[in-house]
Amino acid sequence: MNAPDPDPLSDTGDATRVGVTAGGLRLRTGAFAPKLLSRSPDGRAVRIALVGARALLLAGDRVAVDVHVGPGCALELVEVAATVAYDGRGGPAATWTTRVRLDAGARLRWDAEPLVVADGAHVERRTDLDLAAGAVARLRETLVLGRSGEAGGSVRLRTRAHLGGRPLLVEDLDLRDPRVRRSPAVLGAHRRLETVVVLGERDEVPGALHLEGPGTLVRRFG
């Protein structure tokens, strides 16, 4: 008898877990508490809210979110409130790691609320996505540097996406140096950056950047 495939999310410690397969729904609370909003009659399409389970983000926080969508299943993730990274007062960086696995034909839509990086905060955020053939991910994230009257703290955003085992998107947006992010080639005078990325297929949207493989990246400043 063949051994069962290992659970792709089994080694993530206290990470928030959202798993959707034909066999059912698996949820685990970490920094966020996943709440079921709706589910299709066959259980293959679900809508989940991510609700903050504790104060976020403080110096030294280690936040992890693991997502697995099984073959032919669909998941929509909804965040109910923005996340504020607070002044770390010289403490260690807060880290936020998101790991996504989409099996063949799976679909993910994630409309994230803004991440607000207050003065004095230091945030390292990484997103890793592994897509099988026929899988599609649609992600929207918004970065806001500072609250009202602030310039914003230090933040570095890294994204690594693979499709069928091959790199699809590799990006490192390093905004830790205020002089770099004020450059006209980066953010200029803007403090708000919205990114919409589609992986696994392309969107014909005005101003979109098409990836070498099936994918689209759109950015808006404000």
The structure class reads mainly beta
Strand content: over 45%
Shape: globular
Spatial gap, N to C terminus = 57 Å
Number of continuous helical runs: 1
Alpha carbon gyration radius: 18 Å
Walk me through the structure.
- The chain is mainly beta.
- The chain has one domain.
- It is 2% helix and 53% strand.
- Strands 3, 4, 6, 7, 9, 10, 12, 15, 16 and 17 form a 10-stranded mixed sheet that branches. It has a 7-stranded mixed sheet with strand order 2-1-5-8-11-13-14.
- The longest helix is centred in the C-terminal third of the chain and has 4 residues.
- The protein is globular, with a radius of gyration of 18 Å.
- The N and C termini lie far apart (57 Å).
- The N terminus is likely disordered.
Brief write-up:
This protein has 222 residues and is mainly β.
Set down the secondary structure blueprint.
Layout: E1 16-21, E2 24-28, E3 32-39, E4 45-52, E5 62-69, E6 74-79, E7 83-85, E8 94-102, E9 107-111, E10 115-117, E11 122-131, E12 136-145, E13 154-163, E14 166-174, H1 178-181, E15 192-199, E16 209-210, E17 215-221
Parallel strand pairs: 1-5, 4-6, 5-8, 6-9, 7-10, 8-11, 9-12, 10-12, 11-13
Antiparallel strand pairs: 1-2, 3-4, 12-15, 13-14, 15-17, 16-17
